[in-house]
Amino acid sequence: MNRLESHLRDRRGAGRKLLLPFLTAGYPDRGTFVDLLLACQAAGADAVEVGIPFSDPSADGPVIQEASARVLAAGLRLDHVFEDVAAARSRGLTVPALFMTYYNPVLARGPERFAREARACGADAVLVVDL
Q1: 72 part of a folded domain
Q2: Is 49 known to be catalytic?
Q3: What is the number of structural domains in the chain?
């Protein structure tokens, strides 16, 4: 059983509702994003969902679309997302981290490489919303 399964099974077994906040990677800036991941954990989040910004976020609402547009305009790249999640892990993030992405960033990186790098940075799952 992996960290995600174990963590969520324990909490569901206790009969409690789960809190899984969503954060757009790099928003409002990279340093604050890492701090927010840790703040979510400190506030009791059971896991965190990290949205990987994409230029055509058709499955997202206007707020997430705007956050993605801002961080992409500021130069956020996929490498930064991996680096920032790894930084949060090194600073004590222990709850599961789930990546939400579109297939294009996975395809552009190469699915095997994407999976390898996501795992290496500390991601516990990848949700590809347009497959």
Answers
A1: yes
A2: yes
A3: 1
